[in-house]
Amino acid sequence: MSTQINRTDITPRLRINTDLARRMIVGFIADQIAKAGMKRAVIGLSGGIDSALSAYLAAEALGAENVLAVRMPYETSAENSLSDAESVIQALGLASLTVPITDMANPLIERFPDMSNVRKGNIMARLRMTILYDQSAAWSGLVMGTSNKTEILLGYSTIYGDSGVALQPIGDLYKTQVRELAAALNVPQAIIDKPPSADLWVGQTDEGELGYTYAEVDQLLYLLVDERYTIDEAVEEGFGHAFVEGVWQRVKSNHYKRTMPNVAKLSRRTLGHDFLYLRDFTGR
Amino acid sequence: MRLNIGLAQIYPKLGDVPANLEKHLDYIEQAADRGVDLLVFPELSLTGYQVQDLVPELAIRAAPDDPVFGALLEQSKRLDIMFGFVHEDRRQRFYIAAAYLSGGECLHVHHKIYLPTYAMFDEGRYFDEGEAARAFDTRFGRFGMAICEDFWHVTTPYLLWMDGADVLLFHSASPSRGLDASDRLSGSRWVELVNQAYGSFFTNYVIHCNRVGYEDGKNFWGGSSVVSPDGDFLVQGTYFDEALLVQQIDLNQIHRTRSRLPLLRDEQPQLMQRELSRILARDSR
Lengths: 284, 285
Hints:
The complex is a heterodimer of chains A (284) and B (285).
Chain A: H1 11-14, H2 18-35, E1 40-44, H3 49-62, E2 67-71, H4 79-92, E3 95-98, H5 102-111, H6 117-139, E4 141-143, H7 149-154, H8 175-184, H9 189-193, H10 206-210, H11 214-226, H12 231-236, H13 241-253
Helix pairs in contact in A: 2-3, 3-8, 5-6
Chain B: E1 2-9, H1 17-33, E2 38-40, H2 55-58, H3 67-75, E3 80-88, E4 94-102, E5 105-111, H4 123-126, E6 136-138, E7 141-147, H5 155-162, E8 167-172, H6 186-202, E9 205-210, E10 212-215, E11 218-221, E12 225-227, E13 233-236, E14 243-250, H7 252-260, H8 263-266, H9 269-283
Parallel strand pairs in B: 1-2, 2-3, 7-8, 8-9
Antiparallel strand pairs in B: 1-14, 3-4, 4-5, 6-7, 9-12, 10-11, 12-13
């Protein structure tokens, strides 16, 4: 997919007041944990910018000692993933735990010799979810998600893997905005600067796999989602037609990852249809 | 005449009327200690905002023998109170309501007229629409009440103004939205702009109490305020945190401003009525 060069620069419209974002997200984390009757959060720390920023926000909301950062390397994980995560743990003084997943993942992976990288990656993501939820019970903390708006929209995630969490504090920030907020919170520069990667196999990068940069797709998603542009209107702003169509198709085809499974309605009142209460309605 | 306005910018607990009544009583106590004459709570202050299927179990009657309503009526012997609740009428219709209590009496109940049912809002699914915008007399003069979306439409404040309200009492559960690079959220900017506009257009006091806290992922921004008849903010903010804001207002300022700027004198409601009648007759053809 290619994008045109002569188009409107949407980047200035993606800029955020980082003080306000910080205030609202820190308050949200504290509120969600308190409503669950807890004081602590559990977070998977990959060494990337999303989980690093999330850890900074959680530490501010709950106190660093109430945030358990779990590192879960696989044998192919990049070396700097562990060390970058360590720099966050040290900088904030987080509680931490390292649980390598190689010995858990390989027996399943080896059972299917033709397994694709995507399948292997999904297994790793779901093992990490399992470990985080086990620590949730062991440590009395809610599992905090670290997904951003870009990857949630594009469905660049593993359902019931990295998407299996109790709250999504940065889920309304595009990757471009994650970078802006991370810089404002003094997340280590090495983490902000390195190429985003799910780190599920050697050499994997998000942008390589997606086929476009976050800087590019965030501008388009902002128009399509936040500003409700039609595909034709986005093309008029200078985005390539195939790029716009492809991105929007991807957003649509991954919607199942963003919603609860459909329930077949039979009775007068059915979960998911007309049993309508906020998630917070029993909150403390 | 001077009076002390209190803005009880609280975080109501979703679905817990007893806990919220306790919070009301606590703020009334604090306000009484600070010499407040009229204390304004936010929209649905007794129930929380997104009550959804909780509506029937949270609804109360606006009557002295209702234990919750009665408790607040009793407190209104100390100071005047405006608060928000789910009102159930005799025929099981539910309204988003605001009551003005004074001297142990309920002087007025306003039913929210405009129920936002778009984007993140879903009020029309659960509530009936109010059908009247009426001003009412208090010991401080003639006031009018409007609830959140009511003042996103110029109709409600205009009618209250024409019905004699010199002080507009607005309350909200306004969710935060529209984060960009500017100093405030776009939703907050809009509300503050129109509050200031109503003060300026109507040469009225405009008092606004908005809640704080979170419901699911939605934050409420607070920023409760008082606008003078000259269109100036006398108090604006605290944002995001619970607070009891106290601001003295001088009702004589209305007299002074209107002497300088006779917008009320020169307003032509008959023209409005005539032209609206013509427009509505044309549109109905």
